Amino acid sequence: MEKTKPNNKTAQKTVAKAAPKVAEKSAKKEVNLSKNLPQYRPVLFIDNSNGTEFIISSTVHTTETAKSKTDKKDYPVYHLEISSTSHPFYTGKEKVLDTAGRVEKFKSRVAKAKASKK
Q1: E strand map for the chain
Q2: Does the pLDDT value for residue 22 go beyond 80?
Q3: What residue segments make up the domains of the chain, in order of their start?
Q4: Contacts (Cβ under 8 Å, ≥6 apart) of 80
């Protein structure tokens, strides 16, 4: 059984025919990706607990706009419940729980409950 080699001209024609189709598909994908990408822009973040404002580039979706206190420009606004300026861990007003006292209280309640059952 003899193996026949493909004709170089026919191989070049099939590659040439396939190349435009691949290019068209990749161009369509690029167009679709650019439509789906979120808009990256400066956004005004406002901490609701203390009123602190931050202007940070973000892709967060917002519907309202407001003027910044610092540069008086209009920005899309996103309201935060808590930020680094109001969170106790970052401000140093962190509460340390007395876990040893809690454990002792629990043990005393368990001991009283066992004593009352007897």
Answers
A1: 41-47, 53-58, 65-67, 74-80
A2: no
A3: 38-118
A4: 45, 46, 47, 48
